[in-house]
Amino acid sequence: MQGEAQASDQTARDALSGPHEPARSLYLHVPFCFHKCHYCDFYSFVDTRDRQEAFVDALALELHALAPHAAAPLETIFVGGGTPSLLRPELWERLTRHIGETFDLSHIRAGRGEWTVECNPETVTPELMRVLRDGGVNRVSVGAQSFDHRHLKALERWHDPENVPRALALAADAGIERRSLDLIYAIPGQTLGDWKRDVETALAIDPPIEHISCYALTYEPNTAMTARLRRGEFQAAPDELEVEMYEWLVERLRVAGLERYEVSNFARRGAECAHNLAYWRQRSWLAAGPSASGHVRTAGERANAFAPPGNRWKNVPQLTAWMDGVKRSEGWSPVVEHETPDDRRAIIERVMTGLRLREGLDEASLLEAAATIGDASELRATIARARASGLLYDDIDGHLTLTDRGYLFADGVAADLMSTIPS
User: Fold this and answer.
1) pLDDT tens figures, 254-277
2) Quick one: 268 and 412 in the same domain?
């Protein structure tokens, strides 16, 4: 596969060898797709060798190795890809049964936790939804991206838009009550009117969805979409149109009862994606499958309570290497990246993700954490400049929060703050 990193001689066991908090979240990566979309930079591929069963067998080994590092009970599970719904129902039945036997899912089964599976609308069937529900899945996320055939073609996204509401209805009929939808905007050739129709179509789905993720099209390196842009096959959407689309989106979804709780994510009250919040709040999570990334926070006393340092790792992003490594190492995946605990990196990551959230960042705690590693005066001055520029404000709890204008420059505001974290 193009762009694959070389695995080191380390495994995920090394990242979990020191004292760390038990992980309350689990991520699984299913790499199989029936077509590689041109904008996608996640590890996925069309498998012509039908290795689904071998993949599930290896995943069971890895989950068994990871289980002692999980909290009891788990609070969230997220299965992404790739196209997780491409797995055959009998393999899903085997996988959910193994997860239920390996981890404490009492919180999830009681409805106080969350188990999400990403689904492509073309691969959703009544049987699959029943198997997922019976296995404990209580939330699905369906990738619509657009309801316009022209824009789906531009993305090289192969599905019938009419199958999106059908897939969501099948999930609801099976008893999966929590349903989310993904949309993309600023697609080449897309107008503001086109975007409005996409959003209105999503809002008209019955039964109503509780969560929508809306992402501006990003031209990631080493994707077919970026290569086509460089060849001049199309022009990217103008910045001013992208801003207009986003500002209209925020207001329209607010009227519909879906509030922005992260730059690109909107939900009805109480329906926020708990698993993604664990990422953005820098909690601990375990990771299984090729290319899956995990993070566990260091346990014990620490000066930096704002952003406890932790170990980060990424499993090798290659199916054969991952399966061979898992079998060879008693369930432990070889890794291509392993970052050991570092106070400055932990603060930077907390700023990078936390500032994107509606809840923002506790200013006093941020400055206190920064002061434990150096002089925080430049950071304090950067915060003051962003506040004076109308990009940040302080809420009633003393949290630094992006203003509506600040959300348009979220990455830039975060970059400015991160650059002044003392070293």
Assistant:
1) 999 999 999 999 999 999 999 999
2) no
* Buried residues in 120-149 as b, exposed as e (16+ CB within 10 A): bbbbbeeebbbbbbebbbbbbbbbbbbbbe
| Phi, psi (degrees; rounded to nearest 5) at 297 | -80, 145
State the pairing for strand pair 139-145/178-185: parallel
pLDDT tens, position by position, 372-384: 999 999 999 999 9
pTM of the predicted protein model? 0.95
Q: Considering the domain boundaries, does residue 371 fall inside one? A: yes
Nearest C-alpha neighbor of 117 from the set 103, 106, 131: 131
For residue 363, what is the domain's CATH number?
1.10.10.920
In a domain, 212, yes or no: yes
Could you give the CA distance from residue 285 to residue 208 in angstroms, rounded to a whole number? 30
> What domain range includes position 408?
343-423
Number of domain units in the chain:
2
Do residue 244 and residue 364 come from a single domain?
no
The sheet with strand 399-402 has its strands ordered as 361-362, 399-402, 392-394
- End position of a domain, from candidates 279, 307, 330: 279
Rounded mean pLDDT of the chain?
Answer: 94
With the C-alpha atoms ordered 69, 74, 76, 78, is the resulting torsion angle positive or negative?
A: positive
Residues 258 and 352 in one domain: no
In angstroms, the CA 410 to CA 301 distance is 32
pLDDT for position 301: 67
Establish how many alpha carbons lie within 13 A of residue 16's alpha carbon, considering only the half-sphere containing its beta carbon.
23
Overall average pLDDT of the 295-309 stretch: 84
d(CA 125, CA 123): 6
pLDDT level of residue 55 (50, 70, 90 thresholds): very high
The single-letter code of the amino acid at 196 is K
